[in-house]
Design a protein that fits this description.
The protein contains four helices and no strands. It starts with 9 loop residues before the first helix and ends with a helix.
């Protein structure tokens, strides 16, 4: 199975619309557990995302972590 780049994951696609600044930091890397942990912290601390968008992004992140 080939690895997706972060910007090709569910959470990456969601963040491309709602928080492109976060995606710019992680878009071209191959996701792994460490990257997902870092991204989780970035999402939680982001000041641009609404509470609802943060919840959705974290849910999608969990789905991507399960798939990988």
């Amino acid at each position: 199975m080939s690895k997706k780049k972060f910007n090709q994951t569910k959470v990456g696609q969601f963040l491309s619309k709602t928080a492109p600044g976060i995606l710019d930091l992680a878009g071209d890397i191959l996701p792994n557990a460490g990257v997902f942990g870092l991204l989780k912290n970035l999402i939680k601390k982001d000041t641009v995302l609404t509470v609802e968008d943060k919840e959705k992004a974290l849910m999608l992140l969990e789905q991507d972590m399960t798939e990988m």
